[in-house]
Design goal:
The protein is an alpha+beta fold. The chain contains three helices and eleven strands; from the N terminus they run αβββαββββαββββ.
Length: 203
């Protein structure tokens, strides 16, 4: 018995994957270009997602309430770690030389540290609206008009005096050099649970 396969006609909307009937045919320049642009766009999505800051939730792949052991698996070798009385501070260089992700953790039991706050100082991480470390005070204030001035203190992590402006309801605070002008650039984001206010040295 002879098996007869149906003949398929390939249209412009067909899959771009090579088919035997297309071998040797001259490619359509515009179609090829569109496919290449699509592939480039798709290839950038995972990297972009890994750099998204979501107020009240996460910085890239690091999330609030995540176990410290999981964060260590994701980010690798630590650049700093200090623990005392059920509290722990840890940091990783994610954008050399000074771009870091740091976490403050509490220990609900004798064995597990859990992330309570996340600090990022790398401009490679940004909110969905494009705000990042390096954005100016005025740029951030336009998108976060409710932000209010918090504490001014000497940051041991930033090694300078800073002023924190917080958006308590959204779960994000912004670090600036002390008493910033409208053109002053942000030097760090703090992601924290919604409703929290940063009243002192967070890191």
């Amino acid at each position: 018995m002879k098996l007869i396969l149906p003949h398929h006609r390939w249209s412009e909307s067909a899959s771009p994957i090579a088919h035997p009937s297309l071998v040797g045919m001259a490619p359509n320049a515009m179609k090829t270009r569109a496919i290449l642009l699509l592939l480039i766009f798709v290839s950038t999505l995972p990297a972009a997602e890994d750099k998204v800051v979501v107020p009240g939730l996460r910085v890239g792949t690091v999330s609030l309430m995540e176990k410290l052991s999981s964060v260590k698996s994701e980010l690798g070798s630590l650049s700093f770690e200090d623990a005392a009385m059920g509290r722990l501070w840890a940091a990783w260089i994610v954008d050399a030389p000074d771009g870091r992700i740091a976490v403050f953790c509490l220990r609900p039991d004798e064995h597990t540290f859990v992330v309570q706050r996340i600090l990022v100082t790398s401009p490679k991480y940004a909110t969905a609206s494009g705000i990042s470390v390096g954005s100016t005070f005025s740029q951030i204030n336009k998108l976060f008009p409710e932000m209010t001035e918090g504490a001014t203190y000497q940051s041991s992590f930033q090694k300078r005096r800073i002023t924190v402006y917080h958006c308590s309801a959204r779960g994000i605070a912004f670090e600036f050099p002390a008493e910033p002008k409208p053109s002053e650039q942000c030097i760090g984001f703090i992601i924290h649970p919604m409703g929290m206010t940063i009243t002192g040295n967070a890191f």
